[in-house]
User: Fold this.
Amino acid sequence: MLVRIAISGAHSQGKSTLVWDWVKRNPHYIREEEPFRALHNEGYDIQFRQECNRLHNGIQLYYNASRVNAYGSRNECVIFDRAPVDYIAYSQYTADYGTTDINNEFVEAMVPRVRDTLQNLDLIVFIPISDRWPVEMEDDGIRPIDLPYRSEVDAIFKQIYRDKRFNVMPTQNAPQLIELWGSREERLERLEDAIRRQHGSFTPEG
Assistant:
């Protein structure tokens, strides 16, 4: 059963933890690294918040999209730490402040690439900020500890996924979209349930 999953949402919401937990439970899945971390390890100095620019977000989208598209014709199960949609949300945050060369036109220009790339995913897992299961921010030594920043980005994600801002979903071969919150075990169980509903069965391998 081919399932290509992307985990999406604002930072410090447990996305990477979910990816690692999923691969540990399902070792036949390939884990694709978060673009920021992959590029950071290659020496790219990518900034956040109002300091990021077109190069910073554009190269992360290009990396993420190229990795997703690489699995378009491959018969492998894969889980991505971030989805192409994420770079629209973060770019719109910066555009709203008008502090760098990222503006609304740049954000709109990202949409066709993102929409085309989503055809090569089977499932997008959006992890929103939720009062039902608040997640504390942790200092990972890379991303800023800034609750308002996370909340503002989360609000843009909700506009995209819930209110269909930018209309990012393709009209054909669109991935299923689900939202997850809860404990680590609850997230895994709900993700497995979503795959069962979509594909009729799910049996962990390995």
